Amino acid sequence: MFAGYKFASQEVSWLRRDVLLFANSIGIPAADLHFLYELHPRFMVFPTYPLILPFKLTDQEVVEFYDRNATNTIPGAPDLDLRYAVDGQRELTIYKPLPTASTGSKFELQNKVIGIYDKGLAGSAFDTEQVIVDSVTGEVYTTTRSVSFVPKQGNWGGPRVLMVTTIHFTLFQAQG
């Protein structure tokens, strides 16, 4: 039905400033200076930074995410109001660490629907996969599998089964 539906690819970009703000905003301690100081010889992107790129895309200003995505309809899918969605789970696979800035490169977000599941009166589960890819080389940097739950928006007659996955985190150790 709607499983496998692919949204149009979208460009993503970031600056070193974005990487620094992210590391500071999630409370990286000073002991991990290689995430917090852009002149550190091993300066690198914190591994979970790719999780925000589907929200940020190329914006350098505050993002009104819901307005931007209001027209992202999925053929045959129920009309869910994603303003009420909450994170259910995320699985992040890192194939290659992101560079500290996307300047000089071109990256894109490829987003597809794994499934939308009717959970009855409780609501619906929305399962997606986001891939960050170098648009020139085709090299995949990260894949994120996200399941969001949309409360009180169920009973639309869709499939009820959601396959539960195990979440694995692998962090890259700075070299040097």
From TrEMBL:
Gene Ontology molecular function terms on file: (3S)-3-hydroxyacyl-CoA dehydrogenase (NAD+) activity; 17-beta-hydroxysteroid dehydrogenase (NAD+) activity; enoyl-CoA hydratase activity
Highest taxon, organism lineage: Eukaryota
GO biological process, one term: fatty acid beta-oxidation
InterPro entries linked: HotDog_dom_sf, MFE-2_N
Peroxisomal multifunctional enzyme type 2-like N-terminal domain location: 16-150
Gene Ontology cellular component terms for the protein in this record: peroxisome
Stored SUPFAM superfamilies: Thioesterase/thiol ester dehydrase-isomerase (SSF54637)
PANTHER family: DEHYDRATASE, PUTATIVE (AFU_ORTHOLOGUE AFUA_5G00640)-RELATED, PEROXISOMAL MULTIFUNCTIONAL ENZYME TYPE 2-RELATED
Name the UniProt record assigns to this protein: Peroxisomal multifunctional enzyme type 2-like N-terminal domain-containing protein
Organism: Penicillium solitum
